[in-house]
Amino acid sequence: MTVRATDSTFNIAGLVIVLTMTLSACASTPGGSSGVNVRGPDVADEARYNKGNLKSYTVRGKTYRPDIPQVGHEETGMASWYGHESPNLRTADGEVFVADGISAAHKTFPLPSVAEVTNLDNGKTIRVRVNDRGPFSEGRIIDLSRGAAKALGVYTTGTAKVRVKFLGPAEPLTSTPVYIAAQSGDDQSYIVQLGAFSQKDNAERTQDKIDDAKVDRRDDIYIVYLGPFKGAASAENRRQKAIDAGFTGAILKRAE
Questions:
Q1: What is the three-class DSSP state of 141?
Q2: The CATH homologous superfamily of the domain defined by 25-182
């Protein structure tokens, strides 16, 4: 079980594909063989931890005292995963919980931070964004989101022995928190949806604000989008440029 706030009003309606904001780290399988390709979070240059989440707290009669470990600090133990909560709930540091994202819960790491998790049963390694508290089951050291569990090969087994390495503070989220957990050699087509309008004039005005935008009518709704793009990574690059241009609500969807 993971402790989280429940007063979120954020709604991720229409977000079918969850993708990374950053395109830095990759998971790997032993010997460089192809497998799940996960692009994890960057480590921030400066620590910007949520001070409120460095305070002691008590769960089931046990008190936990969060602290900031040395970079490179390692722990070995059992990992579990969680992902059945509503996507509208927030994590312990106030971020939106995305079950299929690449994130994790830890009892004492500062929030938000970045950790490297290695499945000692199969050798797979990924970086995760630690933004929540837990797990509080005896003998478990980290709770993975469903997306992280799938990437590490923990999803079907439920638990696995892992090594967790603390890497430092995570970059603050500046837009909708999205992540990627795509298969190697991803050749799916994606679009960057900029908006959906009931009036054609509004859609065309939005289209005129950014190069290469297109309008597609679906029933009585006008969809303004970019693409399609081959592969989630290239589509996410374009989404980030759209966000920089002011389209902060841009999302990725599979091309139909």
A1: strand
A2: RlpA-like domain (2.40.40.10)
7-37: pLDDT as tens digits: 333 333 333 333 333 333 333 333 333 334 4
Tell me the pairing of strands 36-40 and 25-26.
Answer: antiparallel
What type of residue is 39?
Answer: R
HSE on the CB side for 159, CA within 13 Å?
11
Find the helix or strand (DSSP H, E) in which 36 lies: strand 36-40
How far does the chain reach from its first CA to its final CA, in angstroms? 37
Other CB atoms closer than 10 Å to residue 132's CB: what's the count? 26
Phi, psi (deg, nearest 5) at residue 40: -100, -175
Q: How far apart are CA 28 and CA 38, in angstroms?
A: 8
- What is the second-level CATH architecture of the domain 186-254? 2-Layer Sandwich (3.30)
Residue bearing tokens 């009518």: 217
pTM of the model: 0.57
Residues constituting the chain:
256
